[in-house]
């Protein structure tokens, strides 16, 4: 695992080396074992790299320069041994056992098509002197990050984290109002956007090429992301892989042979991700996802496992992990997290470079900090809930559909609208209806309901957080537009499959994988996610939702796969979402302590925030009228982020 930066057509050529080293240094945590640089003055291309040594520790220095090709790379190609054999048969010669060298030779042999042959997680930039071009790519599911920006003078910046791009200039770019709205709505900024104008995430399964030969050296002015000038090369990322293809080819049945093949494929995905020349461990929650990974790993090695619990018993499930660890005979380490996680807020903001409200980020960071004492690689069960429909929202969509279909479409609106007016609170209703607050949800379209279910702050709360002026500046923009765009690509009529695709394009890369990457890399640990092996994704995504959801149970296909490896008390356990006791943690502090923690004085200096409305939300939480700890947390995180920013230009 590593970090890299690329400067293409740097406008300040005489300062290229200084800027390159400055940008690369921001990624030392991603690669503390080695660093390297490449500068080609004639082509105006410069690469920087930091390395975390995992395979072939003594070799693998980057940038790798060979055969007029220069490569910087972050990730792991799990089928590199097989690809190496193929390339040797084609006449290629190797000097190491690193997958980095395999990637370079694969490019030399197949060009851009090489990415179709990789099984793994990867982000890389490759300069081909013969083609006079730089090619940048990100893996299919977005496991490894890539950020890029094109400055007004034509300079192109690429890096593994936002902080690397921000280090190029002392002048920070302006915040994006749309991205701010996205953050407060969803808790993260969905790709391809970032919190800053002019800086982008390269979306999962995308790549782009910069033709160096057609670029000219820009001026030394305007070194901040702006709208492209007509004279400069336009960067247009292209999608090379999309899981929509699998979802749009529905399969309504699964044979016993397919289950057997799926079991073998999952076993292979797990075992290949244990390859390393350093100690390997695993996250263990005690659920079926992490348990099947640990069970498979345990066949060939004595596994070190790690879990977290909370100081509030009603949220603490550490005993579940300990029971599974004892059953599998692992070397288990658990930590207990308390409300003092608030003290790590500055580290959280520095870790993510943009506001990120997932309240499990700090506990995960603390757990990997403990794990680093024993291991350098950790396997995680992330991706299984998206792949096998494990989230509660999927089950609610199914129930919602059944209720809607019980009435003719023509009378749904008057019936549900009337019931919503008569029973606005509905404390007596089933949990599904309480979760939607009112029966109005049953009259809404699928996108509206799913977007609301995935939002940490619904529209009525956003109206209290923001000033009318900020809302007007959005010109009707809503984060729901991301959901609408992705849903339009799915021809499968099952709304659960549409929701699944939306999660694969938004929540998975924007929240889950971002959290896993930053919290592990902050402690110089490489995280690997077997369930996101693209072969598994292509095998199981076509399966109809009915095959994975029945009543309160979900992930039925995965439970069948796991049944030969794990006992029934693991495979039959209902999923419990991992949540921290944020509501209670806020109430453990006095109101004045909370106001101080939330740094409302920082928000007052910005014209976007309605301080009276925010204070009203605090009162509502403390009175018990609402449980909105996540709302208060999202505001707290943003205030900490804003405090670290230079004064923003008024929009």
From TrEMBL:
Residue positions of the active site: 2 (for gatase activity)
Binding site for ATP: 380-381
Residues binding L-glutamine, per UniProt: 99
Stretches of the chain forming a coiled coil according to its record: none
GO annotation terms (biological process): asparagine biosynthetic process
E.C. number(s) listed in UniProt: 6.3.5.4
Pathway named in the protein's UniProt entry: Amino-acid biosynthesis; L-asparagine biosynthesis; L-asparagine from L-aspartate (L-Gln route): step 1/1
A GO MF label: ATP binding
InterPro entries named in the record: Asn_synth_AEB (IPR006426), Asn_synthase (IPR001962), ASN_synthetase/amidase (IPR051786), AsnB_N (IPR033738), GATase_2_dom (IPR017932), Ntn_hydrolases_N (IPR029055), Rossmann-like_a/b/a_fold (IPR014729)
Residue intervals of the Glutamine amidotransferase type-2 domain: 2-213
Name this polypeptide is given: asparagine synthase (glutamine-hydrolyzing)
Catalysed reaction, written as an equation: L-aspartate + L-glutamine + ATP + H2O = L-asparagine + L-glutamate + AMP + diphosphate + H(+)
Annotated site residues (Important for beta-aspartyl-AMP intermediate formation) in this chain: 382
Keywords associated with the record: Amino-acid biosynthesis, Asparagine biosynthesis, ATP-binding, Glutamine amidotransferase, Ligase, Nucleotide-binding
Family, per entry: Belongs to the asparagine synthetase family.
Cellular component GO terms, alphabetical: cytosol
Keyword Ligase on entry: yes
Entry-linked SUPFAM superfamilies: Adenine nucleotide alpha hydrolases-like (SSF52402), N-terminal nucleophile aminohydrolases (Ntn hydrolases) (SSF56235)
Pfam families, per database record: Asn_synthase, GATase_7
